[in-house]
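Researcher: Please predict.
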Amino acid sequence: MIKTEIGTTTMDEITVRGRSLAGELIGQVDFVDMILIASLGRPCQGAEKEVINTILVTVCDHGLTPSALAARLTYMGAPEAPQAAVAAGLLGAGSVFLGAMQNAAEMLQEAAAGLPADATDEQITERAREFVTARRAARAPLYGLGHNIHLNGDPRIPALRGVAERTGTLDVHWKLLLAMDEVSGTIYSRRLPANTAGAVGAMVLSLGLPLHMARGLALIGRCAGLLGHIIEEQEHPIGQELWDLVLRQDDRNQVPGKFA
């Protein structure tokens, strides 16, 4: 018999992870708890709710990012299918944009291997220096470090660090990320400040959540932002202007006498 442990539906009842949707969940749990119930079979514990809520707020929207552009242009082409616009915005989440949280979590987990939970600042700094040096020598990317706009430091990091300190989740992964930020300027030609992808990766690790939750929470949070872009595109469209800009640029790049 083919079945799933996540949810069931009968003529009389719907259950999610063994809980009655109507009798135990609707009106009784909030959405952050519901995410963990659906994903892990349990509600939030300890600091999880505050930290996860912080992640969802942080990743909701970053302006006209590739995900927002994809959503707006898809909506322009298919306004009858807003779900397609949201999906288009999410499909580009990967190691460069939006989805790098998981890559950062995997990298921080690798960097922390063998370090005791109560590692000293000196041990953490030395490990960070060794790890960053090795990544550079291998020409491997440093996920969670560097930013193309916030060159002097991601303004979200102090706020996210504050949440980690308040909730007691500023663990060895967080400290490694901050130490990598600190030593990066002595290994590269310029400092590579910790960014939000790194912070979210550290937050997921500090809670002991599955690594896929890092990218998964980013997608959940960004859905809300993409919905906002679609509503704004409906009321104050800019998709056509964006498309016209691409066409004008393409026209300038045409070479006379050659096929496009």
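Model: The chain has a mean pLDDT of 93.
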